[in-house]
Write a structure and sequence with these properties.
It catalyses: L-seryl-[protein] + ATP = O-phospho-L-seryl-[protein] + ADP + H(+); L-threonyl-[protein] + ATP = O-phospho-L-threonyl-[protein] + ADP + H(+). It holds the Pfam family Pkinase. Keywords: ATP-binding, Kinase, Nucleotide-binding, Serine/threonine-protein kinase, Transferase. The chain is of the alpha+beta class and 188 residues long. Helix content is 31%, strand content 13%. The strands form three sheets. It has a three-stranded antiparallel β-sheet with strand order 3-5-6. Helix 3 packs antiparallel against helix 4.
């Protein structure tokens, strides 16, 4: 129950059109109720299952909205790392706008490596295979905004092709041994 309270309190402070608002938390005789905006629409995973790959124009529009939402999260103080971008966590509303749902494994990033939202379980071994970056399974420390960018790319790929990357015939790797290099190393 503490992880739900932590997640709800974090989301309660958000104010972005692509993130549903949490209005209140009510503890009624030991049962916690989260009162939030109703998100009308379908998960993008359902849209893909029913209609297959989406048009480039639609994917670009949705991608821009998702980029804006992730930028909003990453620019907060402290930054919030979503860590679970995938089609089933993106709702397509009837008006064509998208909303990100399920902040269950999101957490606030701290440069010192200490999680502000430790109650959520700050393990790096969370996420969805095919969308989470390899380093998220490496156990070498907390992930940062780059994990969300990777997952967004995998999500956009799925929307364009109708295929999840985890099902591609790619040679398996030992993800636990992968450690991302700093972008500063690329310029060296």
């Amino acid at each position: 129950m503490q992880s739900i309270v932590t997640e709800a309190n974090m989301i309660k402070s958000f104010d972005h059109p692509a993130i549903p608002r949490i209005v209140d938390l009510v503890d009624e005789h030991g049962t916690l109720y989260v009162i939030m905006d109703y998100v009308e629409g379908r998960a993008l995973s359902s849209v893909l299952a029913a209609d297959g790959p989406q048009s480039e124009d639609d994917v670009v529009g949705w991608g821009l909205q998702l980029c804006d939402a992730l930028e909003y999260l990453h620019r907060r103080t402290p930054p919030v790392i979503y860590r679970d971008m995938k089609p089933s966590n993106v709702m397509l509303k009837p008006n064509g706008l998208v909303q990100i749902i399920d902040f269950g494994i999101a957490r606030e990033y701290r440069a010192d490596g200490q999680s502000v939202t430790a109650a959520v379980g700050d393990t790096v071994q969370l996420g969805t295979r095919g969308y989470a970056p390899p380093e998220q399974y490496g156990g070498s420390g907390q992930t940062d905004a780059r994990a969300d960018v990777y997952a967004l790319g995998a999500t956009l790929y799925t929307m364009l092709t109708g295929k999840n990357r985890r099902n591609l015939p790619i040679k398996s790797c030992r993800c636990a041994r992968l450690t991302p290099r700093s972008h500063r190393d690329w310029n060296g």
